[in-house]
Inverse folding.
C-alpha cells in the first residue's frame, strides 16, 4: 500500500488551541482545501483514541492494563488536577469536529469546473458521506464518555458560544439515522477527487493505492464496511436501553456488510518521524520517561491463563523471564515490573479506530442476544483468533479457545472477559464492553477517589466557566456530574 505522508500543516493546524469555546478555535487556519482538514481531523482523532497521555486519555489505566510508576493520581481516578475532561473536549470538538465542519462548508461552496460538472454531484456526495461518518464516530465517543453533550448546537464555528446539551439517547437515535444515510450515499463508482482536491491521497484511514478508478472504488467500499461496522457498534450499545432499536440497527448493519477480516480495519499508519509517529511511542519512548508498567489485574490474568499474547503486550522483568504487574493505584519501580511490549516502543505502530476483532465480538453479542449475524460460538472464536493474529501469533489461538470455550449460559462473561483481554490496545472500546457487559469484575484502585471504577468522565471545568447554565442543566438531567453516574445505555 502506498505510504501516505501526513502534511506538515498538521503541526500547526488546530493544535495548541487554548480557547474555552468548543465552537470556535481562534488559532485555526481554515483557508485551505477540504482534504487537508480531513487529514488533520483523522490524525487528531486517531491520536486522541490511541494516546496514553495522562492529560487526555487515561483508559489504559482505568481498564487496569497499565499502572503509573510515579504520579498515580490518574490511576486512582483523580482527573481534575490535569483538567483531563477539558482536553477531551478540545481534542474532539475543536481539533476533530471543527475541521470536519469546515471541510463540509468548503465542499458545499465548491464550484466545479466545466469538465467536472457531470461528475461533481457524486464526488461531493461521497466526500460529505465520509466526513459525516467520522463525525458520527466522534459524537458517539463523546456521548459514551460524558452522557448528554452539546450536539445540535455544537461546532457552529463561532455562531453559538454557549451550546445547549442534547439528550444522549436522542443523540444516539439521530446518529443511527444519519449514519444509515451516509452509508446509502456512498457510491463506490462515483469517484471522490475533484480537479482542485485529491481527496484520495489525503485519506489516512482507507487510502487508495493509486488514483485509478478500481482503487478508489475499493477505498469507498472499505468506507461502507466501516460505516456498517460503526452502525453495528451503535446498535449493540443500545441493547439494554432500547432493545428494539438496537436489534433493528444491528440487523441492518450486518445485512449491509460489516468488516470480515483485518484487511478491513480502520487505522492510521503512523510514520517513523516526529510529529507523525505513534502517540503511544511519543508518550512511552520519545518522552524519555518510564511512566508506565503493566497492571497487576491483566498481567495476573494472562499469567494464570497462559495467554501467549502477554509476550506482545508486556516485557519480562530483567532476566527473570517473569511477567509482573503492579497493584492498581500504587507507585511502581519501573525496573521491578513489566514494561509495555515492543509495540509501545515502535514509532510506526498503527493507531486503531476500529478493527475486525472488535466487530467479531459485536457479532458474538448479536448472535447471543437476537440470533442474528451467525453462530455465537463461531463468532467468539473468530474474535479471539483475530486478536491473536493481529499480534502475530495466530497459531496459538486454537489452544487458547479450547481452554476458554464460549459459554452460552453466561455469554456476557465469555464476551466481556475475552474482549477485555483482546481490546488491550483499544482502551476506549474496552471501557464500553466492560460497562455494557459487567465483565470482568474490576475492583477500584487501591487509593481510589471513589468506591468503584469510573463509568463516565465528568464535564470539563471550562464548560462550568463559559457555559454554566447549560452544563448545570445537563448535570441535573443525567443524575449528577459524577464519575459514578452511568450513561443512559449502561443499565446493569
Amino acid at each position: 500500500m502506498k505510504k501516505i505522508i501526513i502534511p506538515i500543516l498538521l503541526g500547526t493546524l488546530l493544535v495548541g488551541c487554548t480557547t474555552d469555546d468548543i465552537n470556535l478555535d481562534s488559532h485555526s487556519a481554515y483557508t485551505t482545501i477540504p482534504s487537508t482538514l480531513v487529514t488533520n481531523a483523522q490524525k487528531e482523532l486517531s491520536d486522541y483514541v490511541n494516546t496514553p497521555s495522562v492529560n487526555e486519555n487515561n483508559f489504559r489505566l482505568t481498564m487496569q492494563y497499565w499502572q503509573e510508576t510515579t504520579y498515580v493520581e490518574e490511576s486512582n481516578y483523580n482527573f481534575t488536577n490535569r483538567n483531563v475532561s477539558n482536553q477531551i473536549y478540545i481534542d474532539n470538538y475543536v481539533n476533530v469536529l471543527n475541521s470536519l465542519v469546515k471541510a463540509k462548508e468548503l465542499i458545499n461552496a465548491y464550484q466545479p469546473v466545466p469538465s467536472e460538472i457531470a461528475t461533481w454531484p457524486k464526488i461531493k456526495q461521497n466526500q460529505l458521506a465520509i466526513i459525516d461518518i467520522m463525525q458520527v464516530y466522534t459524537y458517539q465517543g463523546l456521548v459514551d464518555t460524558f452522557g448528554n453533550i452539546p450536539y445540535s448546537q455544537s461546532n457552529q464555528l463561532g455562531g453559538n458560544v454557549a451550546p445547549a446539551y442534547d439528550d444522549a439517547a436522542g443523540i444516539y437515535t439521530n446518529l443511527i439515522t444519519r449514519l444509515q444515510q451516509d452509508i446509502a450515499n456512498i457510491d463506490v463508482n462515483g469517484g471522490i477527487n475533484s480537479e482542485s482536491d485529491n481527496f484520495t491521497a489525503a485519506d489516512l484511514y482507507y487510502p487508495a493505492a493509486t488514483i485509478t478508478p478500481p482503487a478508489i472504488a475499493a477505498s469507498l467500499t472499505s468506507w461502507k464496511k466501516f460505516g456498517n461496522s460503526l452502525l453495528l457498534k451503535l446498535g449493540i450499545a443500545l441493547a439494554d436501553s432500547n432493545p428494539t432499536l438496537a436489534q433493528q440497527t444491528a440487523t441492518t448493519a450486518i445485512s449491509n456488510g460489516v468488516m470480515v477480516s483485518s484487511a478491513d480495519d480502520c487505522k492510521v499508519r503512523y510514520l517513523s518521524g516526529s510529529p507523525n509517529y505513534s502517540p503511544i511511542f511519543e508518550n512511552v519512548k520519545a518522552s524519555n520517561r518510564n511512566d508506565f508498567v503493566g497492571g497487576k489485574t491483566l498481567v495476573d490474568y494472562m499469567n494464570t491463563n497462559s495467554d501467549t499474547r502477554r509476550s506482545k503486550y508486556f516485557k519480562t522483568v530483567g532476566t527473570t523471564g517473569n511477567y509482573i504487574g503492579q497493584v492498581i493505584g500504587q507507585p511502581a519501580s519501573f525496573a521491578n515490573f513489566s514494561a509495555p511490549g515492543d509495540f509501545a516502543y515502535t514509532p510506526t505502530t498503527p493507531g486503531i479506530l476500529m478493527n475486525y476483532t472488535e466487530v467479531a465480538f459485536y457479532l458474538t453479542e448479536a448472535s447471543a442476544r437476537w440470533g442474528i449475524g451467525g453462530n455465537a460460538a463461531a463468532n467468539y472464536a473468530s474474535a479471539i483468533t483475530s486478536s491473536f493474529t493481529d499480534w502475530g501469533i495466530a497459531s496459538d489461538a486454537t489452544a487458547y479457545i479450547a481452554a476458554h470455550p464460549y459459554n452460552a449460559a453466561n455469554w456476557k462473561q465469555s464476551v466481556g472477559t475475552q474482549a477485555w483481554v483482546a481490546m488491550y490496545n483499544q482502551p476506549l472500546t474496552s471501557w464500553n464492553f466492560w460497562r455494557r457487559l459487567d465483565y470482568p469484575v474490576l475492583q477500584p484502585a487501591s487509593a481510589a477517589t471513589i468506591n468503584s471504577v469510573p463509568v463516565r468522565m465528568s464535564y470539563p471545568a471550562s464548560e462550568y466557566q463559559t457555559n454554566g447554565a447549560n452544563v448545570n442543566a445537563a448535570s441535573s438531567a443525567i443524575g449528577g456530574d459524577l464519575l459514578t453516574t452511568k450513561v443512559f445505555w449502561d443499565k446493569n
